[in-house]
What we know:
Gyrase A, domain 2, alpha+beta, 4-stranded antiparallel β-sheet
Amino acid sequence: MNPRIEVVAIDSLMVRLFDAIDEANMPWILAASQRLRAAFGAHLIDLVPSYTTLMLQSDLAPALARARIDQALAGLAPDAGSSGRRHEIPVWYHPSVGPELPLLAARSGLSEQEVVQLHSEREYPVFALGFAPGFGFMGLVDERLATPRLSTPRKRVAAGSVGIAERQTAAYPAVSPGGWNLLGRTPVRLFDRERDGYSLLQPGDRVRFVAVSHAEFIALGGDDHPQEAYA
Length: 231
């Protein structure tokens, strides 16, 4: 591996480890993140891991920051003990809260139950956080479920909505605009200012969506108002 360092801003550098999104990238991204945090210590202002890169902001001069990055990443290798947490997130899959569920089934030639099974049988790594606080980009979904974003995004998507865009999947942590194809909804609170770190999910974590009944969803505190109520 030959990490490339790119200038982002006067105090920020982008460390590029890969050129394409792949689940196999994450152990390397996590290992690089740990090494860089240790190498920069109190000089580190922010470190943002993503699919193929890490953006590093520090108070060091650019030349010194580059040298420290090179030194930290020399001989980089994944650490089997550095994986993130594993989460099981309950989801009520239903057209009233996941209006694209029947459309995705028809497009892929599958039944709605087969779509649910394909979506919930995989364990997804969290590649990055973005778009909104606590919004974790995850993947990769089965190729049969890959579908483009909506041509016209919704103005308001219900909090907890679980959706797909291309081969990525995610859950909306709060009511917000969005153009992902919705399959269902989770009662889990993904962003909480009272939680240490605020976001339930962090890059490197792994997520398994678990299908639950409507009764279970309500018992867990879920909001079953139809998506149309948020339009």
